[in-house]
Request: fold
Amino acid sequence: MHVLGSRILLRPADPERSRAFYGGTLGLAVYREFGTGPERGTVYFLGGGFLEVSGRSDEPPAPGLRLWLQVADVRAVYEELSAGGVEVLRAPRREPWGLIEMWIADPDGVHIAVVEVPADHPLRSRP
Reply:
């Protein structure tokens, strides 16, 4: 299989609330929009990938679903999101594997890791 592109699909309980969270609160840039009405689709840039919020679901998201978002400065994002009223599930801290992580949740309870890769971490060096 030769994959040409990919994206994560979210079917939120309240699409407008989720668009307000991802586009407004987190400030993700819009890649494209399609359709009309409350279930219309909005695709956001996620660095090297995309997040599509479209449709509606009457069921909660899968309990194992997680998003991983890498940022340049997790402490600055922590301050920004905390000031904006986002519930932080866990404040930033350096993990035993060397990354600095904090955790938040979207309006449907999807857990989101916000991660900084420190300058001295092996992910920053080329093999």
Observations:
- The beta strands are 8-10, 30-34, 41-46, 49-53, 66-70, 88-94, 100-105, 111-116.
- Residues 15-25 form the longest helix (11 residues).
